[in-house]
Amino acid sequence: MSVIPVNQRGYANPQYLAETDWLVGQLNNPKVRIIDARPPDQYAAGHIPGAVNLSGFGGIPRAADGDMASAEDFARVAGSLGIGNDVTLVVYGCAKPNDGNGCVGVSLLRATRCASS
Description:
Layout: H1 20-26, E1 32-36, H2 40-45, E2 52-53, H3 71-80, E3 88-92, E4 106-109
Parallel strand pairs: 1-2, 1-3
Antiparallel strand pairs: 3-4
């Protein structure tokens, strides 16, 4: 089975998605930070090498419906971890916590403006 590149899958913003091969090549890059947005038990069961689970830092900010919170809320959490504008963030996990649909997707957050102050 051949792999269809992300930019050919019909996603609205494929520039914010990462190919698996690209991510493998970045695992030791200090300017790339990988965040596992899944619940702690799923992270503990297995994760991408070098990924951090933010449960110990308050977690990924969520809106009331379980979706991702605002960019400003995420920037505040990232900034508190020292993640600034010179770091490419890769976030992966479930669409909603504990939704049971499996955890898919790797997103690049190159455009996020995270003030580390």
